[in-house]
Write a structure and sequence with these properties.
Length: about 325
């Protein structure tokens, strides 16, 4: 294929995807199928950076794949697979570990955030080096673009640095990738605390929109979103973080520009915005839940999609790894 390559991954840990995952990342996965030779994976090796129950991990990994398909990934238009089915990830991961400075790894803010949450002594070395495994994930596929949320920008920078370092030392081997971050939706905020990003680890249940929640639970969360004591519906992230977040979500899901939304809410109260957003959210999650369930109810189809995906992914990954090993003297 002469299309540029896209590669991205999502963790299976939380069960349900949340709205930040969808708007920040998965929505772009779906769009890039049309323009790119796209590889998407469920990153189960990343999940074990924190303790996992094996049966739950297996179930959540399938659930994540089912949700990616429900969101619109088409196995005829992209390669969808499970990270652990392709052993080259761990193999190139080791190579990249040996190319990364300890200080360089120590500067990754995601590790600082995530380990602080667990208590620094309980964090694993795997959690510390997971950005380096992510480097290998991307470089194995010679990806040009990596669709992610804003929180991943630093890891893509690390990927670029390591690709250039390897190429400089051993000869041109890896494509140097770029992040593909949509400005408007690169950071979706918590509905209860719009100063922090919506996330499975930091959000309270009320601030986190899980796509697999009962639709009426979702509607309730939207209606109790934190706004401000003003009444004007205006996009102003600095002074009106809550309202601006709701406008971003509504604009993206409805396809109406923020400017048009602002016009249509002139003279109206926050309740009107929340009621409309609740309705749009319910219309979005209802078929999403149903499609996810359909894939879970048909394990043979899901297994076959993932087996074919792993085979296609492996062909590319094995070629990159062989070349890498050769250049390094193995
Ligand atoms: P989480 O960040 O909740 O732990 P993942 O690490 O699996 O979830 O993230 C999957 C993708 O979703 C990544 O590309 C990440 O950047 C994106 N993402 C996560 N939270 C948000 C958010 N609040 N807004 C935008 N994108 C997000
Ligand atoms: Na993340």
């Amino acid at each position: 294929s002469d299309r540029p390559r896209a590669l991205s991954g999502i963790q299976p840990t939380a069960g349900s995807f949340h709205l930040g995952n969808y708007l920040g990342a998965v929505r772009q996965y779906v769009a890039l199928q049309e323009s790119h030779d796209a590889f998407y994976m469920v990153v189960d090796l990343h999940a074990i950076t924190v303790p996992q129950d094996p049966a739950e991990l297996r179930a959540n990994t399938r659930l994540a794949a089912a949700q990616l398909l429900a969101a619109g990934l088409d196995p005829d238009r992209c390669t969808l697979f499970i990270q652990s089915h392709v052993p080259e990830h761990a193999q190139l991961g080791w190579v990249m570990n040996c190319l990364t400075g300890f200080g360089e790894a120590s500067r990754m803010t995601q590790f600082k955030d995530k380990s602080a949450k667990q208590g620094a002594d309980r964090a694993t070395v795997g959690l510390f080096t997971y950005p380096i495994l992510q480097v290998a994930d991307i470089l194995l596929y010679q990806a040009n673009e990596v669709p992610v949320g804003e929180d991943q920008r630093q890891h893509i920078e690390l990927t670029r640095d390591l690709a250039e370092r390897f190429n400089g030392r051993f000869g041109d081997t890896f494509t140097v990738p770029k992040p593909y971050i949509v400005k408007e939706t690169g950071k979706i905020y918590d509905l209860q605390d719009p100063t922090i990003k919506m996330s499975k680890s930091a959000s309270t249940p009320k601030g986190l929109i899980n796509l697999l929640d009962e639709p009426k639970v979702t509607a309730k969360k939207v209606k109790s979103a934190v706004t401000d004591t003003d009444t004007v519906i205006r996009f102003d992230p600095e002074n009106k973080a809550g309202v601006s977040n709701l406008l971003t979500i509504l604009s993206t899901l409805s396809g109406t520009s923020i400017a048009d939304l602002e016009k249509s809410y002139e003279g109206k109260m926050y309740g009107a915005l929340k009621t409309d957003l609740a309705e749009v959210m319910v219309d979005f999650v209802t078929p999403f839940r149903a499609r996810t369930q359909e894939y879970l109810d048909d394990p043979e189809t899901l297994d076959s999609i993932l087996a074919k995906g792993a085979e296609k992914a492996r062909a590319v990954a094995a070629e990159t790894l062989a070349q890498t090993y050769d250049r390094m003297g193995f």
